[in-house]
Write a structure and sequence with these properties.
alpha/beta; N-(1-d-carboxylethyl)-l-norvaline Dehydrogenase, domain 2; Rossmann fold; 3 domains; 8-stranded mixed sheet; about 15% strand
Length: about 450
Amino acid sequence: MATKIAVIGMGYVGIPAAALLADVDGFEVTGLQRRSKRSGWKIEALNSGRCPFEGDEPGLDDLVSRVVEKGTFRVTDDYSVLKDMDIILLDVQTPTEGPDHQPLYESLKEVSGHVGRNMKEGVLVITESTVAPGTTVNIVLPILEKESGLKAGRDFSLAYSYERVMPGKLIEYIVNLPRIVGGIDKRSEERAVAMYARIVKKKIYSTDVLTAETSKTMENAYRDVNIAFANEMAVIAEKLGVDIFEIQKLINSRSERHMHLPGAGVGGHCLPKDTWLLRYGLRKYWAPTMETEFVCLARKVNDLMPLHMVELVQSALKEKGKELKGSRIAIMGVAYLEDSDDTRNTPAYRLISELESRGASIIAHDPHVREFPEAELTRDLDEALKGADCAVIVTKHKPYFSLDLEKTESLMNLPILIDGRNVLDKDQIEAAGFIYRGVGKGR
């Protein structure tokens, strides 16, 4: 008899997880996706065997098509299917909001309620969403118990296992990175490990729920801090008149060094918020007055990089005797990550907002993103560059590396290029008659 699995949330975590599980002999997987104007189309796309992601996602299109054809994967918006499920995965987002960066648990609470009202005795529930330390036990567990009338650890199992995915490597990172699993008890832990062992090739580490939750937020805070160091050093390098990318290579010539790359800003679902989730969980449940000064400072540094990009734009325009107010700026890339369509927390949001607040008009280009309400968006690069006073590379999509400089200059009103991702060769660009500014590139 097949093991029936539900995956709630058909996003960058839920879709690859569901498809991989559906490809395992003996597993039948149902994806649950709330139907709305923005996301309802995913249900039809997935049920027809099409992956809804626009970016380059190796292996995922074929995998989704295969499991749909096999009949082991389907998607619905009907939560009553949970009554038959043996395992339920929660893969909904927990963003943060406001000056205090409070986590928004509405989606997690909503789906926990649906699960509690529909789950059967003996089910295993696994939270995969990134959450603040203490969330599984203090938020998810009470809702499940209240709505079901069942007791966690006795009547059902509960675990937490965080995702480590990245657009462009969704399958690779689920299958080929170590997995961390935390259970509320030994039985919950063992059941979760047994399921993940069917799709994960690397070691699966077992621990308690709180340690697993904290591990995820600290892991991303660690990376955020390292990026902040690189970003601050990049601004210093600009002032000194040196190239931070050459310096980064020299530093990393020592094998135990690993200086990260600077850029136009930090985006994605995890890094801009996980520091705040760590801080929130700490202050909410354990140390109300403790401040996490070091990691919060790193957040501030990284959040300032889009503003630094604005400064580079103003500097280059000034060299041509042009004010930012009234200028037409072409934004090249609104996805937060190269060759993906993921715009969650993209630095392009703040960059565009700041440019517009200073009187510039914006047109954005991205080869993968289908909609971007914050600005006029086109997939035609020539259209974006035509009449622009300045073009700003925010995302290092592949097409930008092979920019036709002669054509670009003929399309633009002024030959000005701002490079936020070290895509272009400074000497080559300047030799072609452009004014060039780049993050970490001293003049």
